[in-house]
Amino acid sequence: MAILIDERTRVVVQGITGHQGSFHTGQMIDYGTRVVAGVSPGKEGQEVRGVPVYDTVEAAVEKHGATASIIFVPAPFTKDAVLEALDAGIKLVVVITEHVPLHDAMEIMARARLKGATIIGPNTFGVISPGKSKIGIMPNQIYTPGRVGIVARSGTLSYEIAASLTHAGFGQSTVVGMGGDRVVGLSFIDVLKMFEQDKETEAVVLVGEIGGTAEEEAAEYIKGMSKPVVAYLAGKHAPPGKRMGHAGAIIERGRGTYQSKVEALEAAGARVAALPWQVAELVREALR
């Protein structure tokens, strides 16, 4: 099994005729994702990698039954693109775009709640269920089907950890990039709940970082999980008050420190790796 997406997911690419949209459409198709349509206003009738392009998401839903969308639209226009997808009935929207204005992100999340839809991102690498489907920008070759779920704030770190798990013989059920911005659609707890309920996920890897309290909040949920959790946290040596890559990765007023997160996770029973390549061995120990 998998969470969020599988081989039946039908994807529309918003911004498909742009450089990033067209390139990653090809990558997703090569992986086996069912990319059924693209949207680029004013360019209806064109094709990208054999995928028909429409002016509206509504047309993509009506003509091809699209159920999920991926957004490759510049930040100033991202809100309108996401709201269009939600209003067309799309239930899963993956927002790759970074630097989405904070008030726009808040409006997006409020509309998604009203529509009963799920937002992944903004500023995410996406989501992949290995061997089934991927909606995102992650490299195709590092994943393999299996029973370890990954939820991450950081893209690059999650790639490294997924590759090391694959090398160690541990495939992945689904890998979810929450997004690195301050306001994102899914929390660690949201995804942990999905993995807890997924019968074929046997262990979960949580890839966190400094800033905010998401990992401490996740620790409270982990206390009641039946499945083992292994964590890795980035930003151990980051100075307070300095943003480290992601908008959400900043320690403020003593909150969100590396040590506070490690202590909370370990107290909840999670195994915390000091280095990324140690995660696979901790997963091995957890599954013995």
From TrEMBL:
<dbReference type="GO" id="GO:0006099">
    <property type="term" value="P:tricarboxylic acid cycle"/>
</dbReference>
<comment type="pathway">
    <text>Carbohydrate metabolism; tricarboxylic acid cycle; succinate from succinyl-CoA (ligase route): step 1/1.</text>
</comment>
<dbReference type="InterPro" id="IPR036291">
    <property type="entry name" value="NAD(P)-bd_dom_sf"/>
</dbReference>
<feature type="binding site">
    <location>
        <begin position="17"/>
        <end position="20"/>
    </location>
    <ligand>
        <name>CoA</name>
    </ligand>
</feature>
<comment type="similarity">
    <text>Belongs to the succinate/malate CoA ligase alpha subunit family.</text>
</comment>
<keyword id="KW-0436">Ligase</keyword>
<dbReference type="InterPro" id="IPR003781">
    <property type="entry name" value="CoA-bd"/>
</dbReference>
<dbReference type="GO" id="GO:0004776">
    <property type="term" value="F:succinate-CoA ligase (GDP-forming) activity"/>
</dbReference>
<comment type="subunit">
    <text>Heterotetramer of two alpha and two beta subunits.</text>
</comment>
<feature type="binding site">
    <location>
        <position position="159"/>
    </location>
    <ligand>
        <name>substrate</name>
    </ligand>
</feature>
<keyword id="KW-0547">Nucleotide-binding</keyword>
<dbReference type="GO" id="GO:0004775">
    <property type="term" value="F:succinate-CoA ligase (ADP-forming) activity"/>
</dbReference>
<dbReference type="Pfam" id="PF02629">
    <property type="entry name" value="CoA_binding"/>
</dbReference>
<feature type="active site" description="Tele-phosphohistidine intermediate">
    <location>
        <position position="246"/>
    </location>
</feature>
<dbReference type="InterPro" id="IPR017440">
    <property type="entry name" value="Cit_synth/succinyl-CoA_lig_AS"/>
</dbReference>
<feature type="binding site">
    <location>
        <begin position="96"/>
        <end position="98"/>
    </location>
    <ligand>
        <name>CoA</name>
    </ligand>
</feature>
<dbReference type="InterPro" id="IPR016102">
    <property type="entry name" value="Succinyl-CoA_synth-like"/>
</dbReference>
<feature type="binding site">
    <location>
        <position position="43"/>
    </location>
    <ligand>
        <name>CoA</name>
    </ligand>
</feature>
<comment type="function">
    <text>Succinyl-CoA synthetase functions in the citric acid cycle (TCA), coupling the hydrolysis of succinyl-CoA to the synthesis of either ATP or GTP and thus represents the only step of substrate-level phosphorylation in the TCA. The alpha subunit of the enzyme binds the substrates coenzyme A and phosphate, while succinate binding and nucleotide specificity is provided by the beta subunit.</text>
</comment>
<keyword id="KW-0816">Tricarboxylic acid cycle</keyword>
<protein>
    <recommendedName>
        <fullName>Succinate--CoA ligase [ADP-forming] subunit alpha</fullName>
        <ecNumber>6.2.1.5</ecNumber>
    </recommendedName>
</protein>
<dbReference type="GO" id="GO:0000166">
    <property type="term" value="F:nucleotide binding"/>
</dbReference>
<dbReference type="Pfam" id="PF00549">
    <property type="entry name" value="Ligase_CoA"/>
</dbReference>
<dbReference type="InterPro" id="IPR005810">
    <property type="entry name" value="CoA_lig_alpha"/>
</dbReference>
<dbReference type="GO" id="GO:0009361">
    <property type="term" value="C:succinate-CoA ligase complex (ADP-forming)"/>
</dbReference>
<dbReference type="InterPro" id="IPR005811">
    <property type="entry name" value="SUCC_ACL_C"/>
</dbReference>
<feature type="domain" description="CoA-binding">
    <location>
        <begin position="4"/>
        <end position="100"/>
    </location>
</feature>
